[in-house]
Design goal:
alpha+beta; 3-stranded mixed β-sheet; two-stranded antiparallel ribbon
Length: about 210
C-alpha cells in the first residue's frame, strides 16, 4: 500500500476545508447583499459596508489557500483568450474598493492605462485579474492614507525579434517593505514585520 506524502495530505485537507467553509461564507455574503437593498440608518450602513469588506477579504483568503494547494499539486492551468484589459483593470479597482477596510477611508484607488495599450489582449483574465486584485489589496491594506495607483504601460518592441509588452504596476503611499525582507517576502506564508506590527499582515500567500 502506498502511503500518501505529507504534502499530499496537507493539500487534500486544505481543499476539503476550503470547500466546507465556502457554503456558510456564501450564505452570510448573500444575506449581507440582501441587506444593502433595505433602508438602514447611517451607522448601520457603515457597519454593513465593513462586514461586506471583511467577507470579501475572507473569500480572497480562502481562494489563496486553495490556489496554494493547486500550485503545489501542479494542477493550475492557464486559459488565454482575447480580453479587454481596461475592463479588467476597472473591475480590479472596483473590487479593491470592496476589500478596503472601513478604517482606511482616506485611501483613494485609481487606475491609469496608456492610450497605446491595445483594446484586446490575449491573456488569462481570471489569473491576471487575481494578481492585480491581490496587489491592490495589499497596497490598500498597508497604506494608512493617500493614493494607490494601478498603471498599465505599453512598451514598444525594439527589434524584429522582440514583442510589444504591457507592464502592470501598483504604486502606493505606504511605508514599503524593509530592504532586508524584500528577498523573502514572496515565499509562502511569509509576511513583512512592519505589516505584522501594524496588524495588517495577510496570509502570506498573495
Amino acid at each position: 500500500m502506498e502511503i500518501p506524502s505529507s504534502a499530499s495530505v496537507r493539500d487534500r485537507f486544505i481543499a476539503a476545508a476550503v470547500s466546507r467553509l465556502r457554503d456558510p461564507l456564501h450564505a452570510v455574503s448573500g444575506l449581507a447583499e440582501l441587506m444593502t437593498g433595505t433602508e438602514l440608518p447611517v451607522d448601520a450602513r457603515r457597519l454593513l459596508d465593513s462586514i461586506r469588506g471583511e467577507l470579501a477579504g475572507l473569500t480572497v483568503n480562502l481562494d489563496e489557500l486553495l490556489d496554494a494547494a493547486r500550485l503545489e499539486a501542479g494542477s493550475i492551468t492557464l486559459a488565454a483568450r482575447p480580453v479587454d484589459l481596461r475592463a479588467l483593470v476597472d473591475a480590479a479597482v472596483r473590487r479593491s474598493g470592496q476589500l478596503r477596510r472601513s478604517a482606511d477611508p482616506k485611501v483613494e484607488v485609481t487606475s491609469k492605462v496608456d492610450v497605446a495599450v491595445p483594446k484586446s489582449l490575449v491573456l488569462d483574465d481570471v489569473r491576471v485579474g487575481q494578481v492585480i486584485t491581490e496587489l491592490l489589496r495589499n497596497a490598500v491594506r498597508n497604506t494608512p492614507g493617500g493614493h494607490v495607483v494601478l498603471r498599465a504601460q505599453y512598451v514598444k518592441a525594439h527589434d524584429a525579434d522582440d514583442v510589444p509588452t504591457v507592464v502592470l504596476t501598483v504604486t502606493d503611499d505606504g511605508p514599503g517593505i524593509p530592504t532586508a525582507e524584500q528577498a523573502i517576502v514572496f515565499e509562502p506564508f511569509v509576511t513583512g514585520s512592519d505589516a505584522r506590527e501594524r496588524g495588517t499582515a495577510g496570509t502570506g500567500l498573495g
